[in-house]
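For anyone still unconvinced, we reproduce a single protein record, the chain in one-letter code, the fold tokenised, and leave readers to judge:
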Amino acid sequence: MPTRDREATRARLLEAARLRFAREGYDATSVRDIARDAGVDATLIFRYFGSKKRLFDEAAADIPDNLLDGPEEELVARMLGSVVFRDWARYGGEHPLVAMLRSSAHEDARRRIREEVCTTYVRALEDLVEGEDAALRAELLSAWLVGIGILRGVVATPALAEAEPADLAPYVESVASALLGRPMSGIPQP
């Protein structure tokens, strides 16, 4: 099979896996379902990814590489843009966090969520906290941002679903500044 065909097949498998895992979770998704959705034989999942778990890990990984790049005072705005205002079309409109949450009964998925959230989001915020209780304050802000993402992208509550980044900016800046103990700025960008 030519390289281009392998890459296209692998991409179709990832796309199918993202949708299945987001809609049904890890345990309810079979490799046969994913392969059928991608229009290929299930053995290709093992050829390209090695296992269902490794396919899940790759399909659910979606933290932008450059999230931590840029001015510290704009980190919260970048996080909000990444979690809340991103286009999730490649997940069939399902937020990738939902795939992990729907899979949280599976220990590997729970561990993955904890690692991804703690080592990326919480740790970066914790480094910005001025004052005591850095871990607690960073986790509180992370929980708030994830909650906004879920209410806007998953539950689609009316006010948040219709809100633009500039609508949220003053509130995000105020809460982030209070929890981190330092000024935070920047309007989240879609």
